[in-house]
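User: Can you write out an input/output pair for a complex, sequences first and structure second?

Assistant: Here is one pair. Inputs:
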Amino acid sequence: MWKYEKKLEYPVKIKKPDPTAAKIIITQFGGPDGELGAAMRYLSQRYTAPTPEIKAILNDIGTEELSHMEMICSIVYQLTRDLSPKEIKASGFDAYFVDHTNGLYPVQASGYPFSADIFQSTGDPIADITEDMGAEQKARLTYDNILRLVDDPDVRDVIKFLREREIVHFQRFGEALRLVTDKLDAKNFYAFNPSFDVKK
Amino acid sequence: MNEREKLLKKVQMYSFAVTDAALFLDTHPECSEALSFYNKYKKLCKEAKEQYEKAYGPLDVDSEQNNTRWAWVDGPFPWELSAN
């Protein structure tokens, strides 16, 4: 189960609305390397994880991703407040606005809605954790691209925090992969699936 | 930054140290240095939370409530500008 803490993991205080920035940052809510997909990936994979350490790290990083999704949504929410129809049209936010007004809906920057097609849960810990490491790098580069496109220091500060977390998670998943392979056949890591095959 | 924001920032800072240390401990459960770091910040976080809640209302739904009003419902909520 989960319990809500009535605070953000890191403060989000955007003084100036900017719907153009919101249009690209929303991709970290519903996009291919976004926080919703990350949370669903790890929280789905944890059930068949082979050891307690791997169950714990998938559980706890998956949980932290939910708080990152909340931070991304807070950024988008604050960037799209107090807009006039004229500003909405001029910024290109109109295509989103017509369907969702200012509501938060998980989409990619291109407008394509969130899809579970962007992640896997294979039941094989080597495959899953290797995907997880790639996912953290892809999220990191998405944040790098956002930093290339957004100038507002209030937004950049939060994006930099989230970017750092991708790097830490990548490190933890690297350790998790080592913990898995340490317990496998050193000559052939793929000789059996520790989450499925019965080890003799 | 007003008093509430300062106190909230303190909670967020300690709480983040706890979150980050917990991830490290997941893959290094025997690391005594990390465990004492975790315990130190867990304590500071608890104290900061209690200080915040006394003045500005509950951070957890099961935090102690007064008997006159269900304060959990009171804003601002975390995603609002005025909460941060």
